[in-house]
């Protein structure tokens, strides 16, 4: 009697284990079923290209992009000794240096003044976010006219004040700045929208308390708004940095990398090397540099962000 | 909250001046699209007469309707693809428990570090080798899977009470049915947010359509605008601006309608 009971107990324990294992496999398969579409596409269009780009960077290729000869690090050595590429790197970093602080600071200013409870504020919010709906191609066309040497408004305004015309897109001293201004304008809408969202999620109770203590406007801005906004600011900064390194459309529309390669930013340089000169190997080497830059930036930002950002 | 009048005045001044500066490039383009060529060539800032000819000319001389239709199809396809893939993935991360889930989640985060622009060479070769150059599939497929969208929906799905899932399990409702009948309807708002965002960014794509289209049959409106600009560069600014205005109109309308939701949704996905 008791022997039989023990036996059946063992049996149920055993089958229980089995069922549990089976269930675990089933739930794994079910989970994969939901994730499979994303994983497959990420593999084809993201992870494979990553590996393939690194692979190609060690080869010479024919015009269709098939690797023909292994050249080791030659592509990289050639790249880092080429004055054109070094110029392109310098322009890229300068461009980032101009656009990122510009976008974030102006976006922050707009978000702060649009966060007041005033009549008709919705209208201003709509206007400030509008550039998010304007494509790179259309935005470039708009600015292309403003930059026009004779008819453009910018030179007309300069002329009105008796100043000499500027070749906004043709003068090597101005081209990168002109492209940067256009880029800041284009990215303003998105930055503004995110920052305004961040501002609105700050607890109004904090401000009420400060009001009772008689705190002034700028005191509140410095002591409450900016610290409470820091996670959003941090996010916006990361996104702007990564975006700046990936800039392409406005270069293609406004300057095509000129004058004298002044605005030949890295993505445009990759595009030219691969799809105009058919040098897929050296283009891939440049793409690897872009990968590494973005990787380092993201990691550094995560590390710094953890320490300095104030989370609620 | 009552603000003293002087402060109100300062804010309104700042708001007006900023709005004028931010909106000026688009406003000028809008004005020019109704100006005659003589006015523009003479450098007049204020038009002497208004005309609709530029719009007629741009539709007449360019397959603009064709481009618009292509952009609509591609943007809608990408939007739907993203909504399906992101919501499925987000569901798995919130409501399913299985081995390797956290590793997969980390992999999703890691995809955000890989810029599309840098992987464009192999992607072009893949699409070319699959024979998908000049096809809607080639234009849209690389954009279906999206980590940001998955995170955004995951945040929203998390707010659905776990008890609901438990109750449905007892009632014998499976994952897929729960996803379709409970989760998707409840998360309608964030699906709309993601949809608007997906449509906006797809409509505005530049580099990928430039590479993956070679003729007018599937070419999108952004690349059409680039061609318009490079062909007419020297003189007909009115026509170019009319083209530009038509290109931004759908996205601007969408943005104005969905601005509030977009702002809340994006902020949620960004911060939490």
TrEMBL record, chain B:
One of its GO terms (biological process) is transmembrane transport. SUPFAM superfamilies: MetI-like. The keyword Methyltransferase does not apply. Signal peptide: none annotated. It is found in: Cell membrane. Residues 68-258 form the ABC transmembrane type-1 domain. Keywords: Cell membrane, Membrane, Transmembrane, Transmembrane helix, Transport. It is a multi-pass membrane protein. PROSITE patterns: ABC_TM1. It comes from the Bacteria. One of its GO terms (cellular component) is plasma membrane. The keyword Cytoplasm does not apply. PANTHER family: ABC TRANSPORTER PERMEASE PROTEIN MG189-RELATED-RELATED, SN-GLYCEROL-3-PHOSPHATE TRANSPORT SYSTEM PERMEASE PROTEIN UGPE. Belongs to the binding-protein-dependent transport system permease family. This is Carbohydrate ABC transporter permease. It comes from Lentibacillus salicampi.
């Amino acid at each position: 009697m008791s022997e039989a009971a023990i036996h059946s107990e063992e049996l149920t324990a055993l089958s229980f284990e089995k069922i549990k294992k089976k269930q675990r496999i089933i739930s794994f398969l079910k989970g994969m079923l939901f994730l499979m579409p994303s994983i497959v596409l990420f593999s084809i269009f993201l992870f494979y290209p990553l590996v393939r780009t690194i692979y190609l960077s060690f080869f010479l290729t024919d015009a269709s992009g098939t690797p023909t000869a292994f050249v080791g690090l030659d592509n990289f050595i050639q790249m880092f000794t080429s004055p054109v590429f070094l110029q392109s790197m310098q322009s890229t970093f300068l461009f980032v240096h101009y656009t990122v602080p510009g976008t974030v600071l102006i976006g922050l200013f707009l978000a702060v003044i649009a966060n007041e409870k005033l009549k008709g504020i919705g209208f201003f919010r709509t206007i400030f976010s509008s550039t998010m709906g304007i494509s790179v191609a259309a935005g470039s066309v708009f600015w292309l006219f403003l930059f026009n040497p004779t008819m453009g408004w910018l030179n007309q305004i300069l002329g009105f004040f008796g100043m000499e015309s500027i070749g906004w897109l043709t003068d090597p001293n101005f081209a990168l700045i002109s492209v940067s201004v256009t880029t800041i304008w284009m990215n303003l809408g998105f930055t503004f929208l995110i920052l305004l969202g961040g501002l609105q999620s700050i607890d109004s109770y904090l401000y009420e308390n400060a009001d009772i203590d008689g705190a002034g406007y700028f005191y509140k801005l410095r002591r409450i708004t900016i610290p409470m906004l820091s996670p959003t600011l941090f996010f916006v900064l990361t996104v702007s940095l990564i975006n700046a390194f990936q800039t392409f459309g406005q270069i293609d529309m406004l300057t095509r990398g000129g004058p004298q390669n002044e605005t030949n930013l890295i993505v445009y340089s990759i595009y030219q090397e691969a799809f105009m000169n058919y040098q897929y190997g050296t283009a891939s080497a440049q793409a690897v540099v872009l990968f590494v830059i973005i990787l380092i930036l993201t990691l550094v930002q995560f590390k710094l962000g953890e320490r300095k950002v104030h989370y609620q | 909250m009552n603000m003293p009048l002087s402060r109100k005045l300062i804010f309104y001044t700042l708001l007006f001046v900023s709005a004028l500066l931010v909106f000026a490039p688009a406003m000028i383009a809008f004005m020019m699209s109704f100006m005659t060529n003589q006015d523009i060539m003479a450098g007049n800032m204020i038009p002497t007469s208004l005309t609709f000819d530029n719009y007629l000319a741009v539709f007449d001389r360019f397959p603009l309707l064709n481009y618009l239709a292509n952009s609509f199809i591609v943007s809608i396809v990408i939007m739907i693809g993203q909504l399906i893939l992101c919501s499925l993935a987000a569901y798995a991360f919130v409501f399913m428990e299985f081995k390797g889930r956290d590793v997969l989640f980390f992999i999703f985060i890691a995809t955000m570090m890989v810029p599309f622009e840098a992987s464009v060479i192999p992607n072009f070769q893949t699409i070319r080798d699959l024979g998908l150059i000049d096809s809607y599939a080639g234009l849209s497929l690389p954009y279906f899977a999206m980590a940001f969208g998955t995170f955004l929906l995951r945040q929203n799905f998390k707010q659905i009470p776990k008890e609901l899932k438990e109750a449905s399990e007892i009632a014998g409702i499976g994952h897929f049915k729960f996803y379709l009948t409970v989760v998707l309807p409840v998360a309608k708002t964030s699906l709309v947010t993601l949809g608007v965002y997906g449509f906006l960014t797809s409509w505005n794509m530049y580099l990928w359509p430039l590479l993956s289209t070679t003729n007018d049959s599937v070419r999108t409106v952004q690349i059409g605008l680039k061609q318009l600009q490079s062909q007419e560069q020297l003189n007909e600014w009115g026509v170019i601006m009319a083209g530009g205005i038509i290109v931004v109109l759908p996205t601007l309308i969408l943005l104005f309608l969905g601005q509030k939701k977009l702002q809340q949704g994006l902020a949620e996905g960004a911060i939490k």
